[in-house]
Amino acid sequence: MIRDWVEDLLTLTDEDWGRYAFNRDPFVGRITQASQSEYRQKAADSAVALAHSLRGEYGDNNIEFYAKQLGASLLYKKEESGSGYTMFACYKELNTITVFLDNAEATDKLVAEKELQELVGTVKTADLLAAHELYHYLERIIPDIYTAQKHITLWKLGPIENRSRIICLEEIGAMAFAKELTGLKCSSYVFDVIMLYPRNPQRAKKLYETFMGFGSGRSERLC
């Protein structure tokens, strides 16, 4: 079942993933489809360029090395208890990235058992999660990073205006950065379903169906 889902998810395009991301953004109603596509592309391109820049400066290294060079504290822990939901990883200011290994290892086991490597590659889930959170850390320390800029005007009164970040661009950037830095074969979004499957297949199924609802470019806004 999960293999069939992954094969289906691999048919989704970057535009499809962008529609999903923008659907979750509080300002989606203020942004045209054409602008969404432009913002998505620039966010992804900026994130990929940042990954290339890191490799250019520090060489081909593991995520722990990059995190250390950039001043981030990368921690690995067992599953967080009592939270009421499954947490895969998190970034907390100022510089702490935490990856929960129970969930990551369960995902790696699933990928191996279902022989998904030929579809998604051999990147370890913990590395993918760490790279994703590392991007969020970089958004804090690199003020001119594209996804950290305020792209949308909420209101304007004469020379005074209130501008805001487009929140979903942060996730689009983190997904693209993690894919590029780790060498993942597929969109990082695919792993959102794979990571849920070992412990909550029903939630994974629901998310898979949500993702597939954004395919083909004919999706309506889902609430």
Query: Averaged pLDDT, please?
Result: 93
Radius of gyration in whole Å, from Cα? Answer: 18 Å
Spatial separation of the terminal alpha carbons? 26 Å
Low-confidence stretches: 217-223
* Total helical segments: 10
Major β-sheet strand ordering: 1-3-2
Shape designation: globular
Class from secondary-structure proportions: alpha+beta
Strand content: 5-15%
Number of domains: 1
Q: Percent range for helical residues?
A: 40-55%
Major beta sheet summary: 3 strands, mixed
**β-strand number:** 5
Order of helices and strands: HHHHEEEHHHEEHHH
Topology:
Layout: H1 2-9, H2 14-23, H3 33-58, H4 63-69, E1 73-77, E2 89-92, E3 96-100, H5 101-113, H6 117-120, H7 125-141, E4 150-157, E5 160-165, H8 167-182, H9 190-196, H10 201-212
Parallel strand pairs: 1-3
Antiparallel strand pairs: 2-3, 4-5
Structure description:
The protein starts with a helix and ends in an 11-residue tail after the last helix. The strands form 2 sheets. Strands 1-3-2 form a 3-stranded mixed β-sheet. The chain is built from 10 helices and 5 strands; from the N terminus they run ααααβββαααββααα. It is α+β, with helices and mostly antiparallel strands and 223 residues long. A hairpin with a 3-residue loop joins β2 and β3. The radius of gyration is 18 Å and the shape is globular. The longest helix is centred in the N-terminal third of the chain and has 26 residues, at 33-58.
